[in-house]
Task: structure prediction
Amino acid sequence: MITVDIHRRIGDFTLKAAFSTQSGVTVLFGRSGAGKSMLVDTLAGLVQPDGGRIIVGDRTLFDSEQGINLPPERRRLGYVFQNARLFPHLTVRRNLTYGMHRIPEDERRHGFDDIVSLLDISALLNRRPGQLSGGEKQRIAIGRALLASPKLLLMDEPLAALDEPLRNEIIPFIEDLRDSLKVPIVYVSHSVDEVLRLADTLVLISEGSVTACGPVETVMNDMALWPVAGGFEVGTVIAARVTGQDKVFGLTDLSFSGHRLRVPGLGVHIGSQLRLRVRARDVALALNRPTNISVLNVIEGKVSQIRDTGEPQVDVLVDIGVPLISRITRKSMHDLGLAPGRKVFAMIKAVAIDRNSIGHGGPVL
Amino acid sequence: MWTPTLAEAEILLLSLKVAAVSVVFSLPCGLLVAWFLARRRFPGRTALDALVHLPLILPPVVVGYLLLLFLGRNGIVGAWLYEVFGITIAFTWKGAAIASAVMGFPLMVRAIRLSLEGVDRGFESAARTLGAGPVRVFMTVTLPLILPGVLSGTILAFARSLGEFGATIAFVSNIPGETRTLPLALFTAIQSASGDATAARLVVISVVLALVTLIASEVMARRITVRFGA
Result:
């Protein structure tokens, strides 16, 4: 359980953040310059807020009223920086043990060998940071933070400096931390993929303030928040369960609120839960159930809301048991005579849902 | 084989002793002052900066004379040192070491300060989050990272010390076996009518000493670079 309520003023920028979150992964999401990194630095104690309080678990790290302000070295928070910040003068092994040596042995929660094998870095132990690739550096930075047995792991866009393949190489490790080590994580990101795959709780930050905080599905499906969040493309997040595999055509069947959704094969077990994101522009609408078309997923629903800002395209919110957003042209809206209450069929191309649109976990609705 | 005479060996050893002692004692002060100048904003920072650089700009004889005023037997600090501890500094090799240290100090501070300013503070923040307090961070992260700068600052100060003349002769005079270092011995030889041969030999010793210092610093610098891994 993390409770944060702090404010800090620098020039004409004001950071004023209040949120509280359960364990698991909390993603701080927002555009660059929104104050995410400053917020994480504040949690770590590297930046001092003007006032407020920070509580992690049962420990008060900062409380201006009680005059508590633990220095960073006594906060016991692990911090994985965007650019790894491995000590260039030490070997990988000594980087890893730097924090571990400062923790009494009976308080160490992760064994050196366990972390090394979890992160698959045993071959790198005797190298220097200068001889490592970006992805390797980031894995070692994660290991170094974990070996200091933190009560909470802070990660400030740890994948931002990496290219796509490397990102996909690291994300499973972070999923592992969350699922097998049960380390609570506060994760700064401006990538929707990372939110989908990692987040339990989403904290939306805009211009120094928290604009929303809650479960990923709730926050990301809130139409009112899109202009604020800015960073992500409009779409719907749906929690679903894997119900079948079509071996012949290599498809996976998902089910959610009584609907079946077929997507390209995922290689996940039947029964597992996952979260997928359907981009609004990948959802087409029809007034009658279409026949003889290539689209595999046709779901009946009712228009509940239309967001028309005068642009050539409009966002139509369709109630299919869960809200589904479709982005169509204003012309189509007029031609079909769409209005709230109208029955429609939403069509989702299976191939529009790729690996990056799918994350693990999340409650099934 | 060309070998230095006993007298020349004595001069050489005295020079090395004076330079070594001056560097060893000024290094901790140099680190401290460089750290304050690079990292802290405090009233009088500019004044401290100017004071440190003064020996670089003032004629060395002025520095030597000022040292004599302060640290001589009748000087403000010198008199006190003599009365309380019975220590005499003026006209001893210790005074020569102090003169050398003062003259080399700006070079040392500049080099260390530059490397301190070049250190990515992010490494220090990272060490803090890993449980290291400020002193430990300095010892385990900052100091190793500025080692090349510390080394070059020390070499510069050492070399400056070996060549020190003006401040030394003004402060501790030119006493054989006590304060007559290489440059002073060379000066003495040049002054005497029959000193040409002696002067030539001392010049050779000076050149060899300078080359050895240069090579030693190169070797050490290379070791450090290797340690960091390109």
Remarks:
- Chain B touches chain A through 21 residues (CB under 8 Å).
- The mean pLDDT of chain B is 92.
- Chain B is about 80% helix and 0% strand.
